[in-house]
């Protein structure tokens, strides 16, 4: 899925704007630290603290601070130099996980979307559907979060907005049965992709695990190779809790990739760096707003520069 130069420029503006709270909190603190003093261990410790507060994680923060100090002891250093090192080091961490989501591997490609309620899961499915439709793919959505009438209704609205077919049942219906019917129908109609919404009740891990395992089991009856991707939608505003969510959903659902949402709502966008460093899971997309085109494929370089507050992509 490639985008035009104009699309890329527009996205950069949305991304850098969306990460403004994170980059301002980091950049402002760094500018204050480096003003009128030479670089010493105390300054590096303070830079490390700034990065930890932005949720980059202890290991990442220590590595980046060490990189800033490389060959610069007792010299004056500018905020721009620190930001350049920050961008470079963050890009090194993120580059291995920046991977596109393949839609053309099988037909239909079955994508199971998981995540806690409120993580932006249903909205993410709608945006992914709109994106796939824009690129000429036929898409079906399965309203598998059958416990919440609001989630079913929301998915139907996204189906209308994106031009995707929607398979839904009454609230309380069996989610696995719905997934089975949706995949059977998607295959019969020759759809390119089936995106399956799921419930996200983390407080009852055993029930969630049973339900997701059942969904996967019945999907495999229709297509033994499915699901082809298990995407975890993560809300950036929850900070460190996102690490716990990755841990649980990796165990419960065999997550194969991540979508990070709501990066525009937090000064803690560094959590994505911490997650990439700890788990190494592919990051397919990031979202910086509510609009249908506020979700885009993840670019390590763009994200690193936006988080460091560097003006150009």
Could you explain how this protein is built, in words?
It contains twelve helices and eight strands. It has helices spanning 5-18, 20-34, 41-53, 58-69, 79-94, 121-134, 149-162, 175-188, 205-222, 241-253, 271-279, 300-308, and strands at 109-114, 139-142, 165-167, 193-197, 229-235, 257-261, 283-287, 295-297. It has an eight-stranded mixed beta sheet with strand order 3-2-4-1-5-6-7-8, with helices on both faces. Strand 7 and strand 8 (295-297) form a beta hairpin.
Features:
8 strands, alpha/beta, 313 residues, 8-stranded mixed beta sheet
Q: Return the structural class.
A: alpha/beta
What is the molecular shape?
elongated
Q: Helices and strands, in N-to-C order?
A: HHHHHEHEHEHEHEHEHEEH
Q: Over the alpha carbons, how many angstroms does the gyration radius reach?
A: 21 Å
What is the residue-averaged pLDDT?
92
User: Using DSSP, what is the number of strands?
Assistant: 8
Strand order of the largest sheet: 3-2-4-1-5-6-7-8
Distance between the termini: 19 Å
Tally of helical runs: 12
- In percent, how much strand structure appears in the residues? 5-15%
Regions with little confidence, pLDDT below 50 for 5+ residues = none
Helix coverage percent of residues? Answer: 40-55%
- Strand count, sense and closure of the main sheet? 8 strands, mixed
In short:
The protein has about 325 residues and is an alpha/beta fold.
Tell me the layout of helices and strands.
Layout: H1 5-18, H2 20-34, H3 41-53, H4 58-69, H5 79-94, E1 109-114, H6 121-134, E2 139-142, H7 149-162, E3 165-167, H8 175-188, E4 193-197, H9 205-222, E5 229-235, H10 241-253, E6 257-261, H11 271-279, E7 283-287, E8 295-297, H12 300-308
Parallel strand pairs: 1-4, 1-5, 2-3, 2-4, 5-6, 6-7
Antiparallel strand pairs: 7-8
Helix pairs in contact: 1-12, 2-3, 2-5, 3-4, 4-5, 5-12, 6-7, 8-9
